[in-house]
Amino acid sequence: MFYKKVNKKIAFLVFIIIAIVGTWFILDILSIGPGLPPPEAMPKWYIPGAWQGNVQSCTSFFPQISPYCKSRNYSEGKFMIVWYFDDESKFLKGEDTLYQYLNANGNVFQQKLNISTELQEKIKRDKANNSWGPTSGPHLFNATGYESLETSGYFLVYKRPFLKDREDYFIAYYGIMGTMNLTEETPALKKLIAESYYMSKEGKVDNLMAEDEKGKDNSLLSWF
């Protein structure tokens, strides 16, 4: 009888421990969202092919505006950099720091990009490969163009692309090494943007803006 009572107590304690650990695990999963990686892995979300490897730490082209940053090189000098923020105030500070740096080190301009054709091509490929990603966000949007001696490309901001009540912010740079002829490289960069694109209906994609430019009318932008 004594051993039966001891075994029951042990079994009960094991049950309690398992229940506590299970509850902690569930709450931890809910805190980062269903199926979403932790902050340090989030930049990979917008880098095509990142989950298969070949990602690096951020380049020295731009300031370190977030501890969560990854980059990847592609063919013909194309590359991507993605910064992730899990807090709006940190995102706004990082966005402003980056914008001021760009203005001090190159030519910055705002431009509308239309990636409808490129997204349709991506959707066809995804269906053929039995893969899928939400592309229900806008296909025509504002982007920030940047031209310098080191690199030229486009910056996009992805705001709350998963759930409207989750604070997820991404700044993505789609660039070319060592060129100032961005117009010539735009078709290739638009294809890279389309491959990277992930946006739910609740999210928003936009250009970079400095603090003193927020709220201004950006409707008079060049179209491409």
Question: Can you describe what's shown?
Answer:
This protein has four helices and eight strands. The chain has helices at 2-32, 88-105, 116-128, 182-196, and strands at residues 68-73, 78-85, 107-114, 140-147, 151-159, 169-177, 204-206, 222-223. Strands 1, 2, 3, 4, 5, 6, 7 and 8 form an eight-stranded mixed β-sheet that branches. The chain is globular and about 45 Å long. The model is unreliable at 2-6, 12-33 and 217-224 (pLDDT under 50).
Write the layout of secondary structure elements.
Elements: H1 2-32, E1 68-73, E2 78-85, H2 88-105, E3 107-114, H3 116-128, E4 140-147, E5 151-159, E6 169-177, H4 182-196, E7 204-206, E8 222-223
Parallel strand pairs: 3-8
Antiparallel strand pairs: 1-2, 2-6, 3-4, 4-5, 5-6, 5-7
Considering DSSP H and I runs of 4 or more, what fraction of the residues is helical?
25-40%
Radius of gyration from CA coordinates: 22 Å
Strand content: 15-25%
Which residue ranges are poorly predicted, with pLDDT under 50 across at least 5 consecutive positions?
2-6, 12-33, 217-224
SS elements, strand count: 8
- Label the structural class: alpha+beta
Sheet bearing the most strands, described?
Answer: 8 strands, mixed
Give the number of helices. 4
The H-and-E topology, N to C, reads as HEEHEHEEEHEE
What is the arithmetic mean of pLDDT? 81
Q: What's the overall geometry?
A: globular
What is the first-to-last residue Cα distance? 83 Å
